[in-house]
């Protein structure tokens, strides 16, 4: 009996810390990812890319390193995910260890978790498969890298034309921060293309019009598959479930070496003491880990004008007020979100009312309108999608009824001509009867 109790206590002692880890997971009230798994080819990356990892740890992230082919690694246990985000810095891995594969990584993203994927010219078929699942297609030519003979970095490695000084950034403060990135970003790796028809994938850092993708060790016999501004160097994906992905064609751009390099773009006199890599990658990591651009909506309210309580149904032609509070996560707390493009629909099969919401600059959005003269089951719908921000999808169902028989006006103003016509006809009939009966 004592041995059973002792064994139970040991199991409980093991289970309690494990359950505590599972309970400290991604929360809508605290959306910043805190537990990050980093998969590497070699633990040397831990020191060669230490500046990037230290920037994450300084912001409170728990970073755990594992070899990509470690047979014990797993993303989930007993149906619960052990990590909030995944960083893959193992471009040449042919097969992940443990229970991880391309399908498991996409399930991880489908569950609302975030991903950073860095590749290079040695990218394996497995890494390319994960990228394709995310909507990004790396150049398939063996040994191909991005080459640019006009926008290379003259101050890095004696002007190697495969080291690009890229400064074609996406124009989005929510993704790259409000502070301008002055210095070009050093990039050495492979390019990729994105599906132009997709509104989920965005090019964050593009190559210059003179760039092309080819193997620098062989002659260029055929036109390159990817060239010019169509070559994306770094792209981001925001899935429909608001999971975020960053895909880079260069692992070296995350390295301490590229962080510390001075850079001068070919053809320009300005020499920067430090590349823009650290600022660029820090800002984009804030976005992918939901420290910026994450919205939530609370306190959705609607009621009749002059009332406070929410009714269980409206009557046609009622005047109503609608309001919602929207906040943005700053990485530490929720702050009021201010915009002028939030709209609400009063919807039944199609929108009968579409109103742009006013704001008090403190996170409260509101409007008022008249219920349409149509009865049925309506919805208040807010479908908000803006570049770089998590999407909001709010709906609240409410029935609308017609007037009851005793709610109509006794005399309708618009019907006065018909009332007059009826009484004039009765008067005429009475006069005709009198005249007919008493006239000789």
Automatic annotation (TrEMBL):
Main localization (coarse): endoplasmic reticulum
OST48 middle domain sequence ranges: 302-439
GO cellular component: endoplasmic reticulum membrane
Purpose: Subunit of the oligosaccharyl transferase (OST) complex that catalyzes the initial transfer of a defined glycan (Glc(3)Man(9)GlcNAc(2) in eukaryotes) from the lipid carrier dolichol-pyrophosphate to an asparagine residue within an Asn-X-Ser/Thr consensus motif in nascent polypeptide chains, the first step in protein N-glycosylation. N-glycosylation occurs cotranslationally and the complex associates with the Sec61 complex at the channel-forming translocon complex that mediates protein translocation across the endoplasmic reticulum (ER).
Keywords: Endoplasmic reticulum, Membrane, Signal, Transmembrane, Transmembrane helix
Pfam families: OST48_MD (PF23358), OST48_N (PF03345)
Similarity remark: Belongs to the DDOST 48 kDa subunit family.
Biological process annotations from GO: protein N-linked glycosylation via asparagine
Domain of life, per lineage: Eukaryota
Assembly with partners or alone: Component of the oligosaccharyltransferase (OST) complex.
Pathways per UniProt: Protein modification; protein glycosylation
Membrane topology: Single-pass type I membrane protein
Localization: Endoplasmic reticulum membrane; Membrane
Protein name as catalogued: Dolichyl-diphosphooligosaccharide--protein glycosyltransferase 48 kDa subunit
Keyword RNA-binding in annotation: no
N-terminal signal peptide: 1-25
